[in-house]
Design brief:
The structure is a homodimer of 257-residue chains.
Chain A (H helix, E strand, L loop, with lengths): L1 H16 E15 L2 E9 L5 E2 L2 E5 L4 H13 L7 E6 L10 H7 L6 H4 L5 E10 L11 E8 L10 H15 L14 E2 H12 L5 H11 L2 E7 L9 E5 L1 H10 L6
Parallel strand pairs in A: 1-6
Antiparallel strand pairs in A: 1-2, 1-4, 2-3, 2-7, 5-6, 8-10, 9-10
């Protein structure tokens, strides 16, 4: 069977050219119009879902491996990846046993001979506007799907825990870094930006406090336009000031006593 | 020579029992009375300094390996370690070449035969009151020393970069988590707590804003005592409310719009 043969070839390739005990996994969050989703892959010829992942070549920097793997598994590129945690439990099988997982993946039993049977996996996350990207399945994958953050199924390995921690990290990020560039249209209203924050946090925010705090970051330019087509009292339009935004990204909004 | 033999035995042990391409490094920050320091080890019979580090056994969780390694290398235990970044460049030799480093470590050339010669290293950091702990050197180490954060020498591997990133992470942490428990005496003044924050941030803070923000976290109990022995207008004493402090640690101070 063609697929099995390809898998076997890949395993030989892995044994020769890749670090034996390090893997990479990706939590790609997708935001669009008040929805927060996560990109999942359905493993070839099964009904099991998991995060996209990859491995590190001997002569390849970890970060390079991350971008290469994400592209190979999903076709996605030009996405800013942020490392968030390395998962190193010996048994990273939360919902499905090791045997069940190996069976699901269609891996021959002797795959374990060449590997210590145990990966330390470096987790990366990203946040994209999911209407703007189109993931494409790779050899191991029947389909790529955006799953609603509240409806993630039981995943292979410890991938549910990875999503939980990535989401916690993303939420933390809102306290020290600006967010929103590449997620909103070029011109947006304060309610649009607030909706983005609320969607990530999974809770509503006070309108006035939100506006005060966001304006305090000094990363927005208010335009001399209001949103058209709405009811009366149309809200002002804003735009990120790219220079200030990037400065804030670098400097971070640290504790300001 | 005794030491060389022990090293060779250890290498055999490593090849057999440890993951081949994963290591661990520790940035242990020490705070005391307005000073911030980092724990460094001087490599046996050399003048080269580095961070304490370790490796992961095949049947050992990464986190377990971290606590075990820290204890083996420095004698330190009961320290809360926080993972902050995994360093995965192929050549993690910033100030000294690979050959120079191998020479310094007194490692035989064929040490590279058993390893791919390349580790992905998981970084952990901790913050302790350095007057309360006494690190003790291990087999590889002539001395353990607390170095002032502003006077770190050129270190082996990429350890200077590790310290820089760990410090950035520690500073970030002040924006979303309370800090200070186990670093200050049981009863302390607001200026004591402010000094802790200023020492970590490396900058002075406005007294009133600091007080307002810290009290806003609702993690302190103000005692009915003032500090004695000082001048007039002795400051009030505070104590962490353990229950609220731990709740804040879990819940985190996220973006509050």
């Amino acid at each position: 069977m063609e697929y099995k043969k390809q898998i076997e070839q890949l395993i030989v390739d892995f044994r020769t050219n890749y670090l034996s005990s390090v893997s990479i996994d990706f939590v790609i969050f997708g935001f669009h119009d008040g929805q927060l989703k996560v990109l999942l892959l359905r493993w070839k010829e099964t009904d099991k879902w998991c995060l996209p992942g990859g491995r590190v070549r001997h002569e390849e920097n970890l970060e390079t491996a991350a971008y290469r793997s994400l592209q190979e598994r999903t076709g996605l590129s030009e996405i800013f990846l942020e490392q968030f945690h390395t998962f190193g439990d010996v048994l990273r099988y939360t919902h499905f046993s090791k045997e069940e997982t190996m069976g699901t993946l269609g891996l021959p039993q002797d795959v374990l001979d060449g590997f210590p049977g145990r990966d330390v996996s470096v987790g990366y996350y990203a946040l994209v506007e999911f209407a703007r990207v189109t993931p494409t399945p790779d050899l191991f994958t029947d389909e790529c799907q955006w799953w609603d953050i509240d409806q993630i199924p039981l995943l292979l390995f410890d991938h549910n825990a990875m999503i939980t921690l990535a989401l916690k990290t993303l939420r933390r990020q809102l306290s020290y870094q600006p967010i929103g560039y590449n997620l909103l249209p070029e011109k947006f209203t304060m309610p649009d930006l607030q909706q983005l924050y609320e969607t990530i946090l999974g809770q509503t925010l006070d309108r006035r406090n939100f506006q005060k705090r966001i304006l305090g970051y000094d990363i927005l330019d208010r335009l001399d336009e209001r949103k058209t087509g709405g009811a009366h009292k149309a809200p002002y339009l804003y735009r990120f000031n790219k220079e200030k935004y990037e400065k804030a990204l670098k400097g971070e909004v640290l504790f300001v006593g």
